[in-house]
Design a protein that fits this description.
The protein is mainly beta. It is built from no helices and eleven strands. It is globular and about 40 Å long.
């Protein structure tokens, strides 16, 4: 059973940066979609950023200009560089990879607070 493992979350002050990473424990074949989602307390999970196998990226309006997603299909890794963080970015961040099957990570907490 392939698992996705996130790292890089933590506590950061407003205006700071974090880099989230996600790696698969095994090989995921034919990845065509990788993404980061987040879920804040009391809210639904939402898409933050995604990248296709062709390199096309998509960002939530709240992430545009501040976050950058990058992925390596052959290595089954995806990263999210987050800059200019705001308190409203506080959430559990989940990575997702979709190939023949879809996989979710277990989440990493990001807290933006002074």
């Amino acid at each position: 059973q392939v698992q996705l493992m996130e790292s890089g979350g933590g506590l950061v002050q407003p205006g700071g940066s974090l880099r989230l990473s996600c790696a698969a424990s095994g090989r995921i074949f034919s990845i065509n979609f990788m993404a980061w989602y987040r879920q804040a307390p009391g809210k639904e999970r939402e898409l933050v950023a995604s990248i296709t196998s062709g390199g096309r990226t998509n960002y939530a309006d709240s992430a545009k200009g501040r976050f950058t997603i990058s992925g390596e299909n052959t290595e089954n890794t995806v990263c999210l560089q987050m800059n200019s963080l705001k308190p409203e970015d506080t959430a559990v961040y989940y990575c997702r990879m979709v190939g023949l099957f879809g996989y979710w990570g277990q989440g990493t907490q990001v807290t933006v607070s002074s």
